[in-house]
Amino acid sequence: MRLQLCAVGRIRKGPERALLEDYLTRFDRAGKQLFLGPCSEHEIDDRKATSAGAQGEALLRAVPSGAVLLALDERGQQMTSPEFAAWLARARDRGISDLAIVIGGADGLAEQVVARADQQLSLGGMVWPHRLARVMIAEQLYRAATILAGSPYHRT
Fold it and tell me: Domain for residue 69, yes or no?
């Protein structure tokens, strides 16, 4: 199952970019044997799409046709890491070929994106900067792959 991380805003060089690339590389390596990945990244330029509606349209254009859409939204379902790993495995086992994970801009996701989403996921009750949310979901993808592979990375 191919994954696409679609997010509003750019992460330039720096610690967030380094962490994001590290976790996506780890996920691609760990997920390969599990038929998960690769995970590519698509950034929406928030200087061109300045409103939540314009950002939503750009995000939806970035989602591959027929992909399952997972929207990061504060009103979404909270999952433990093992629950998220199981959710990914079920999507893969149902024959889903593309999964798009979308992260909105400073004003959140436009309603048209939330309405199109097959699943909404919350990273918790706190609000996180969008650059950190992208790193956090990349780490959770890697963690999910290690859980499914039986690796000791995730300790309970």
Answer: yes
Which residues have a Cβ under 8 Å from the Cβ of 62 and sit 6 or more positions away?
Answer: 4, 6, 42, 44, 100
| Residue 28 backbone dihedrals phi, psi, to 5 degrees | -60, -40
The model carries a pTM of 0.94
Please tell me the total count of domains within the chain.
Answer: 1
CB-CB contact of 138 with 5 (8 Å): yes
Asked if the structure places residue 49 within a domain, the reply is yes
Structural domain of residue 28, as residue ranges?
2-149
Strand 119-122 relative to strand 68-78, pairing? parallel
Q: Is the pLDDT of residue 156 over 80?
A: no
pLDDT in tens, 16-53: 999 999 999 999 999 999 999 999 999 999 888 888 89
- Contact between 143 and 81 under an 8 Å Cβ cutoff? The reply is yes
Is-contact 108 128, C-beta < 8 A?
Answer: no
H or E stretch covering 136: helix 130-149
